[in-house]
Amino acid sequence: MAGTTPRHTDAEGVDGGVGLTALLVAASRAVETHRHDSLAQDPYAEHFVRAAPACAHWPVRIEEVPDGDDNPLWGRFA
What we know:
Elements: H1 18-33, H2 45-50, H3 74-77
């Protein structure tokens, strides 16, 4: 295979596939960071989420989550 160039089949970038999963984890870390009783702090998580257009509308604070802690996705992640 000499002379061949590697081809990248993942053309979706950070907004899709594994990148989207990383953004979801960052969003949950941001929610946890801003809780008054947080167990973990990640001061960069909110900035990471806000920098990606695909998740600009995602909550990064528990106050932004509809139903707060009772929300089956966002409230239970953090």
